[in-house]
Write a structure and sequence with these properties.
Rossmann fold, 40% helix
């Protein structure tokens, strides 16, 4: 347990999380869902302090910021990097682009692994309206006998940053550049302005998206899909997607045929 109550105003939250992990420790140990973000390095440190058995896994999506990937490799070499069978771009060729209404990318690239295990996550209620309804212990409805353990579910951003400061944890440099959350590039949930910013910051990734859309169009034309009639190039499709014009389109399933 931590005892530096004078240094950390939420010492009770820390000790509660540590005791929680100790009490629920499974014989085989926890599966840590590690992303490299601030919440993720916090839970990683908590399980170490708790002294429980665990194995940490990072799902490499192929569209993570390169700074994040480097940070994980440099500072968390013991974390297992799980690579997907198909890259995000290959999946775009086959499945079409992801949208807010159909975010197949998370299911395929980020939520694999840990089936039948107790999975520790860094999910917090403060992150979104949807997550505000989450609990410390949750049973997965998709994976049989899988339980999610969310030890910092009630922590605020300030709690997380205080903990990182006191424990002197290294964190990804993108936070010092103004990023508040770090995830996949061009995420549909991030919003139009954010995606446009990332396209400017990472032109090579933007180019890879365009190439994937070009290939998707060729497949659509071969199969005589509706999307083949709507776009003349991958660049046009990328512009349509990144500017969220699809969100106003009554036929939002155009790419998923």
């Amino acid at each position: 347990m931590l005892k530096e109550a004078g240094l950390f105003g939420s010492i009770d939250k820390v000790n509660e999380a540590i005791q929680f992990l100790i009490d629920l420790e499974p014989p085989e140990g926890y599966w840590i869902a590690f992303s490299g973000g601030k919440d993720s390095i916090t839970i990683y440190e908590l399980v170490k302090i708790a002294g429980v058995k665990f194995e940490a896994h990072y799902n490499f999506t192929t569209i993570d910021p390169p700074e994040l990937v480097k940070f994980i490799k440099d500072n968390y070499s013991e974390v297992q990097i799980d690579k997907p069978k198909e890259s995000f771009f290959k999946l775009v060729e086959r499945k079409g682009y992801p949208t807010r209404q159909c975010r197949w990318c998370c299911d395929v690239l980020k939520e694999q692994g840990g089936s039948g295990r107790k999975i520790v996550t860094g999910i917090r209620k403060q992150e979104s309206v949807k997550r505000s309804k989450r609990r410390m212990v949750e049973f997965c409805y998709k994976k049989k006998n899988t339980i999610y353990i969310n030890p910092i579910i009630d922590w605020l951003d300030s709690d997380v940053w205080d903990f990182i400061k006191i424990q002197k944890l290294k964190y990804c440099c993108l936070y010092d550049q103004g990023w508040t959350r770090i995830g996949c590039l061009f995420c549909p949930m991030a919003g139009r302005e954010r995606r446009l910013y990332e396209a400017t910051l990472y032109p090579k990734y933007a180019k890879a998206f365009v190439l994937a859309f070009d290939k998707r169009l060729r497949i659509a034309k071969d199969r005589e899909l509706r999307s083949a009639k709507r776009f003349s190039s991958g660049t046009e499709m990328f512009d349509y997607w990144i500017n969220e014009r699809h969100s106003e389109d009554p036929d939002q399933t155009v790419m998923f045929e």
